[in-house]
Amino acid sequence: MKVINEKTENSQAFLTVEMEPAELEQSMEGSYHRLVQRTKIPGFRKGKAPRAILERYIGRESLLEEALNHLVPEAYEQALKEQAIEAIARPQIEVMQTEPVVFKAIVPLKPKIKLGDYHNLQVTPEPAEAVTEDTIQAVIEQLRHQRAVWEPAERAVDFNDMVVLDVESGIEDKPFINQKGAQFQVLHDLSFPAPGFAEQLVGMKKNEEKEFKLQFPADYPRSEVAGKEAWFKVTVTEVKQEILPELNDEFAKELNADFATLDLLREEVSANLKHRAEDKARVAFEERVMDAVAGPAEVEFPPILVEMEIARIIDQRFQRTNQSLEEYLTSVNKTEAELCEELRPLATQRVTRSLVLGQVVTEEKIEVSDPEIATEIARMTEGATENKEAVERVFNTPEGRESLGQALLTRKVIQRLVEIARGSKEIETVEKEEK
Q: By the 8 A CB rule, do 107 and 13 touch?
């Protein structure tokens, strides 16, 4: 076997491997012995057909493919040892020819990270958004709407009403929306099912029928209907109006028995809004700190890490929904390749940040101990509303503890950088001294 290390760039080694004819023949012989045991050839007992007979029966290409499936991976591993290369992920391998066997391998290598002077990092936090009487009232109004009841209205349709409709529609002689008994809330500037649809319903009465056409704008999110005209035929079968509960102490008590008065409800809403605003400001500050650390850092990594992160983002996104990837792509009229390109900047940012934070962990000698992981498991188990034993079992597996440890490590390193950014250069050493 001959191995040529052509170049190393972007944390990738580019290898060309040429096999000796004898090596291919040895692999072909091994493939013959494997295939003959599972191939039924007329006139021969299983496993007894000569190699020439097997080759004629299944074709030399099939035998060669089986041989390469074993030969190439083994040769690749041997090439790594010979070149003293440590791969961090699967390579890209392309067989260039088979007589003799020559293949190329692009090998992902360990990333290179050179941090900037993060020890003198300074980032000024932005204050949390103020909680105003208007924002408190807006939340309380949302609560009122959640507790509202819908009653029949013997009048024409108005905005904010709920109507029951029979709908027929089409676009360019193709069916669009056809449904009987559809419920629809008539809201201002609603773009579904088409811009202007809600406005067409205002003023209609029960059992009234109406036909109209609507034009989709050229930049409409659903590209399959963008720029096209749709026709609609609707019949209003019922009109309902929203009846909001009165804003008083009884309303507060119905929401929660702990709220004896409306003032106590307002205080709780105000406290929750303040907490959310502070959390939002904290997360925004941490994001700016990480950007400030990653910005001047010199980071080189193999492209495969971005591809892996794109796959991880897609998996996480669709694990949280009942929609499949294929269904989503159809709904947004995109290919999987287009979705991947859309996610590439985010994935690149995540990989860069992760590598930079990992390097800070190394330089700052930040660690997570087993007791810290155990404490976190206990906290998460205590916070579980049901099936606490199952939660504890999941996180107490080796994989669960490792995942939790990584999360705690990330939390620690971000906290360390936040301390630096705020001007605190002191490092907590009590735990290290006790160890």
A: yes
